[in-house]
Amino acid sequence: MTSRSIESIDLKMLQLKNERSQLLAKQCDAKRKLNTRQAIIIGKWLMAKKPELVTAIAKVLERRQDRAAFNLPPKAEKVPQISVNSHVDIVLPLDDRPAPPSAEIQNAE
Question: How far apart are CA 83 and CA 68, in angstroms?
C-alpha cells in the first residue's frame, strides 16, 4: 500500500466518525424532544384532570424558576438558627517554631 492510499483510508475513517457523531447527536436530540413532548402532554392532562395534585406540587417547589412557572413568589430563604447553647470546636494549626526566650529566664542567669 502506498502512503496515498493510507491517507485516503484515514480521511474516510475520519469522515465516517464525524458522520456517526452527527447521527448519534440527532438521535439523542430526537429522544430529548420526545421526552419533553411527553412531559408536556402529561402535565397538561394533570392540570385538567387533577388540579388538586398540581396545587400540591406547586406548594413544594423550591427553585425560583419552578415557582415562577406557577406564578408563585420566591420562597423565603431559610436562615439557619443557632441556639444559645451551641458549642463550636475550633482547631487551630500548631506552630512548630520554638518560643523565643523570655526576659525572665535571661535575667535569672
Answer: 34
Q: What are the DSSP calls for 40-96, one per residue? A: HHHHHHHHHH-HHHHHHHHHT--SHHHHHHTTPPPPPPPPPP--TT-----PPPPP-
Q: What grid cell was written down for 46?
A: 394533570
Per the CB < 8 A criterion, the answer to whether 53 and 46 are in contact is yes
- Measured CA to CA, the distance from residue 74 to residue 30 in angstroms comes to 34
This prediction has a pTM of 0.51
Tell me the pLDDT tens digit for each residue of 30-89: 999 999 999 999 999 998 999 999 889 888 999 999 999 888 898 877 777 777 777 777
Kindly report the backbone phi and psi dihedral angles of residue 89, in degrees, each rounded to the nearest multiple of 5, phi listed first.
-95, 130
Q: Classify residue 92 by burial, with Cβ atoms within 10 Å: 0-12, 13-18, 19+.
A: exposed
C-alpha cell of residue 80? 439557619
Phi, psi angle pair for 59, to nearest 5° = -70, -25
